[in-house]
Amino acid sequence: MRNFNSTYLKSDILAGLVVFLIALPLCLGIALASGAPLFSGIISGVIGGVVVGFLSKSQISVAGPAAGLTAIILTAIATLGSFETLLLAVVLAGLMQVALGFAKAGSISNYFPSNVIEGMLAAIGVIIILTQLPHAVGYDIANEGDFFYIDKESKHTLFTNIIDSVNFSHPGAIIVTIVSLVILISFNKLSFLKKIKFLPGALVAVIAGTIINEVFKATGSGLIISQEHLVNLPIPESMSDFIGQFATPDISQIMNIDVWIVAATIATVASIETLLCIEAADKLDPLKRFTNTNTELKAQGFGNILSGLIGGLPMTSVIVRTSANVNSGGRTKLATIAHGTFLMTAVLTIPFILNKIPLACLAGVLIMIGYKLANPSVFKHMWDNGKFQFIPFVVTVIAVVATDLLKGVGIGLAVSIFFILKGNIKLAYFFKKEEHQEGEVIHIELAQEVSFLNKAAIKQTLVHIPANSSVIIDASHTVYIDHDVLQLIKDFLEFGSKDKKINVQLVGFRKEYKINNSTRVTSIEASTEEAVNS
Fold this sequence. Notes:
Elements: H1 9-33, H2 38-55, E1 63-65, H3 70-80, H4 83-102, H5 114-136, H6 158-167, H7 171-189, H8 191-194, H9 201-218, H10 239-243, H11 257-284, H12 293-310, E2 315-317, H13 319-327, H14 333-349, H15 351-354, H16 359-373, H17 376-384, H18 387-402, H19 405-423, E3 441-445, E4 449-450, H20 455-463, E5 470-474, E6 480-481, H21 483-499, E7 503-507, H22 524-527, H23 529-533
Parallel strand pairs: 3-5, 4-6, 5-7
Antiparallel strand pairs: 1-2
């Protein structure tokens, strides 16, 4: 438990509460879209929060059932013939992920360019906003009871659903959404509300939205939001009914080749989505910490093994819940574990209260999260970084929104690699690893051209520099430094070196550097703008 920091205890607990309120309908909706029992989504959410949260080295990532796996699960259940056989595939997928972790396959995440990750985050923000607009106005016929899934095979599409919602909107839901957004914006903009750390705006918005609908009911108003537009948590009538919601894998199908194919598919997709989300989570982390991705694969694998054994869906690290965690003040893994604990406790004790929460106020919370991810300032920032950063970023945004997460990121990655290879056809990077002891002076000499392909080696070197050392980063012979590497060095100056009391000196960069000993903040981008744009 050494990773827990009591400094953030209160904010982590409150962030966990907000993430729980968002995760609850997500877990139910993804289970519904997957053609699986609703309770299987809850099981996956609890394990993703408590078990994966405990085993993971990520301080802010939140795991749970993912929308990206719904189509795979839906098809797999039909192919394999039963949900219990799918559970066997989930267990095997977890074992494969653990093996990938021990094989150090997680290091592949170091080669995802930041412009692609930023594009993925912005695209997720756009998708969040678009998918929540129908819920915000009380019209969700294309995904009734679901909260984050686009049915591309029905006559209803994402955009036609938004158009239809204008004609079939519900005034009560619109009022709840507007009130929720006003509360959330107020907590973001008004200084006296910002100081109320013990009461996050998202929680206030949920409480206010629930009370408004209860007032509608009490007064017999025509603005009442009906049950299909509220959280819909299954309520068992007895303990035996509750226990009956758990399921076990059908071990007799272990020799079925289709089971192994489904397991390999789940393991591959879940691992890639997890690595993408972990890389994105590290960028969202205000404290700029690095996550051991190999450990993350092991944690996700153990989580999927347990989930499959007791009747849960496969899980990944999920950027929607992770973003909500960061925006709500979560700073350590306690927030993730708290969200899973709240989810388990609420299912056991107060499902009837949770079923009073309108989806409209939760949609308002998610719309604000989506706006923060796809904020226009993000697009301006990428534009200012030059065309080699901006074009892959925009392509990724468009591709993810138009297709799906994996295809979109793949397209963005291909475009990014094209520009990097075009601009760095004669790339050479020479780096000599040595063992160093505390108190020594360590020299790091950058090559003539440094691209994001060198990010992994530099990152590992900086992470393993011993405490109380002196480091000289020499760029005297360097004419090009990739934006990702510059950001990595800046984060090390601002956070990593401070935590380990490392004295850092920058030599030979385009302009003379001075390190402020009190903050260790150095404006790298400004002083190397020519290098990045060249």
